[in-house]
Amino acid sequence: MWIRLKALIIKELLAILRDPRSRMILIGPPIVQLLVFSYAATLEVRNVDVIVLNRDSGRWGHELVQRIDGAPTFRRIFHAQLPAALQDSIDLQSAIAAIHIGPTFSRDIEAGRSADVQIILDGRRSNASQIVGGYLNQIVASLAADTPAGRRVTDAGVNVVPRNWFNPNLIFQWFMVPNLIASIALIIGLVVTALSIARERELGTFDQLMVSPLRTHEILIGKLTPPMIIGVFHITIYILAAIFVFGIPLRGSLVLLYGSAIFYLASVVGLGLFISALSMTQQQAILGAFLVMVPAMLLSGFATPIENMPGWLQHVTIVNPLRYFLVVVKGVFLKDIPLSEVARNTLPLAIIALFTLSAAAWLFRRRLE
Amino acid sequence: MTDTAHGAAEAAHSGTVRRLASLVRKESLQILRDPSSILIAFVLPAVLLFLFGYGVSLDIQRTRVGLAVEVQTPLTQDLAASFQASRYFDVSTGRDRRAFEEDLVLGRIRGIIVIPATFTSDFAAHTKPTVQVIVDGSEPNTANFVQNYTQGVVANWAALRSAETMAQQPAIIPEPRYWFNAELESRNFLVPGSIAIVMALVGTLLTSLVVAREWERGTMEAIMATPVTAAELVAGKILPYFVLGLVSMTLCVAVAVFLFGVPFRGSLLALYALSASFLVPALGQGLLISAATKNQFLASQVALLSAFMPAFLLSGFLFEINSMPTVIQWITIIVPARYLIPSLQTVFLAGDIWPMFLEAIAVMLAMGAIMFLLAARSTRKRIA
Fold first, then answer.
1. CB B158 to CB A149 under 8 A?
2. How many CB contacts within 8 angstroms connect chain A with chain B?
């Protein structure tokens, strides 16, 4: 049995790696992706343009404009002469925020009255504009603290001292790269496995495999092993890049990470095999893999935290292998989570793997009859 | 003489129409018969919209935090009550921060807010008391929100306290107005963005798969051997998917507007003009990928990497292009979705802003022309 199995695994590996372009696609793009997406995917806001209309002739209006100008978040500060220009630049998205300082701004401050400053933000980019709104509020608040009235109030103020655990400077890549380690393994593992049986079926070589002395479970193991090897390979490359290219601290144990990764890959490959057994053509297999992949990525806590989702949708995420492995990757890298926590997230992976693999085997046998 | 020439031209013309019609018919039947194209054109968009409409949200609501009040006094209890009343936090209260540390490591809470033992005495002595907030840096976005909202709660509380004692108004009142999306529903901009992703999928992924299959099976050469010209062949392939893309988009818009209540303030004309212009480079890219790879596995991977992922991550849909490193900002220039998404969000939320739309349409059509030229070149070369 071992000889037959070995022959099949070698054949499957060759089927994937023989074509130089397939080899390229398995190695090149995931690395490019890691570099591009880990730098691109940031929810920080920088280099945005704002427009200012200062109708105040006093020193406080000028001071506010100066402080906005000096803020590192903003790239260019446009100066408007008329209120209509504010509307135009928001409409055309040439500025994300428009600041309107009224003619009585300095007079109100000097007189000890509350002065208004109007801030218009582009709600079409509501996430970025909320962050920009926050920055502008801080600038306004620090100016307010320097006014005569402000100085009296701030004596009563309270300091808030933030401390960031696990990621002291809140570097976004420390969050993004571990996420990508898990998701790239999902994308590649799912598509490679989903295609394996569908391709043989489409090309007609599946029947040949069936009449060979190989037993059903041997065929399945033969189909499973190469994508798992490729998956481990990708995870390894990504872990190396995370440590040596991005300088992300690896605080936990690699043994735990790899131990959990085996179960994660098994569950992904099981899912791929299940799709493959359902599809008649390669096109169906690829599109089927897609239909699983996109929701899996959206419901994993990668793009948005799971705790922000409505309760019933949080229950749906229970069947998502990516969700558990993300906790393990991020936890091992940044938080050095204990063995018990790794095990708590690996057990569901083992259950998902067991379920998808046996479902695939069952479907596979049924299709044969 | 002129008569015969005219007749020949007419015959050639009617031949084109006839051949094109039968090609379109063949391709349409193929779409309708394969459940997977229905899956990608209708089921996946429905799932995506559903997830963006109900599930995936960038709005932070009720983040779980631990609140450690080291010494209970009326003052600290008052501040603790402000945290408990905040609609952004789901607070569990304790006395010791160490009780929450494990929860923070395991991700059960996203922050620990500490009101230290010296808070009351510092407050009485007018030496700025301190509130410490410890956040989970492994989720930088949530961490920022927790910091900001903590600052907000504390500032409000302090302002209220000093207003009670001094009857003091704040010196400057910022009045933020969020245009086009006053309630700041992230759904309102995620849903228009996901429509662009759906069209990128139908346009590029589906088309590249279908054409790659013909190459893989050798049926492409069979068609080439018929009197069909290259232009007719391309048009026959493209037209059904163009229509499919528009139908899928229409369905998405209907769901977005009628089910999720996303406002639609622009015109249908603008919506269709933008979508049709986007499908040109999307389909051209699909053709180019299939002609270059001639293999379904490769085509799917290339389409995934060059169309789907960029439409998701490099288009300004979720992540601000301005915030990316310069090199990556250059890469986004060749992502067609980058031009569509701001315009789509505008059609939905702001209305018709034609100068913006026309620019986007012009860029997308130009990109489409380049894609088609490249696809035609690579098709011809391979056959010779």
1. no
2. 345
Query: Element (H or E) spanning A164, and its range?
Result: strand A159-165
Q: Do A309 and B56 touch (CB under 8 A)?
A: yes
- Dump pLDDT digits (tens) for B350-381: 889 899 999 999 999 999 999 988 988 877 65
Would you state the pLDDT for residue B154? Answer: 87
Contact, B281 vs B368, CB < 8 A? yes
pLDDT interval class at B220 (50, 70, 90): confident
Instruction: List own/partner pairs for B231-235 with CB under 8 A and 24 or more apart.
Output: B232/B16, B232/B19, B232/B20, B232/B23, B233/B23, B234/B287, B234/B372, B234/B375, B234/B376, B235/B20, B235/B23
CA distances from A228 to A90, A192, A219, A304 (A): 50, 10, 15, 28
Which whole-number Å values give the CA distances from A128 to A124, A135, B19, in the listed order? Answer: 9, 11, 51
Closest CB to B51 among A22, A48, A299? A299
pLDDT bin (cut points 50, 70, 90) of residue B3 is low
Highest mean pLDDT among A229-233, B52-56, B176-180: A229-233
Q: How many helices (H) and strands (E) does chain A have?
A: 15, 5
Stretch 157-186 of chain A: residues touching chain B, C-beta under 8 Å: 157-168, 170-172, 174-175
Spatial distance between the Cα atoms of B294 and B300, rounded to a whole number of angstroms: 11
What distances in angstroms separate CA B89 from CA A1, A324, B81, B112, B153, one per listed residue? 59, 25, 12, 11, 10
Topology of the domain covering B63-166: abc type-2 transporter like fold (3.40.1710)
Contacts of A49 in chain B (CB under 8 A): 322
Confidence of residue A345 (pLDDT cuts 50, 70, 90): very high
Q: Which run of H or of E encompasses B114?
A: strand B111-115
Of residues A253 and B218, more confidence is placed in A253
Average pLDDT along chain A: 86
Helix (H) / strand (E) containing A51: strand A48-54
What letter would DSSP give residue B182?
Answer: T
- How many whole angstroms from its chain centre is CA B167? 47
Within a 13 Å sphere around the CA of A219, how many CA atoms are in the beta-carbon half?
22
Cα–Cα nearest to B289, from B231, B187, B362, B208: B208
Residue A298 contacts B, CB cutoff 8 Å:
yes
ipTM of the complex: 0.78
Verify whether the Cβ–Cβ distance A47 to B323 is below 8 Å. yes
Q: Touching check for B127 and chain A: CB below 8 Å?
A: no
Bridge partners, A122 (sequence order): B179
**With 60 as the cut, is the pLDDT of residue A357 above it?**
yes
Residue B167 or residue A160, greater confidence: A160
Q: What CATH number should be reported for the domain whose range is A48-154?
A: 3.40.1710.10
Domain residue ranges in chain A: 17-41+168-368, 48-154
User: By the 8 A CB rule, do A310 and A224 touch?
Assistant: no
Residues of A numbered 231-270 whose beta carbons fall under 8 angstroms of chain B's beta carbons: which are they?
A: none
Check: CB of residue A288 under 8 Å from CB of residue A272: no
Q: Comparing C-alpha atoms, which of B371, B293, B299, B373 is closest to residue B335? A: B371
pLDDT at B1 over 50: no
Q: Cα(B116)–Cα(A246) distance, rounded to whole angstroms?
A: 36
Domain-by-domain residue ranges, chain B? 23-56+185-383, 63-166
> What's the pLDDT score for residue B168?
56
pLDDT at residue B384 tops 60: no
| DSSP letter string, A233-248 | HHHHHHHHHHHHTS--
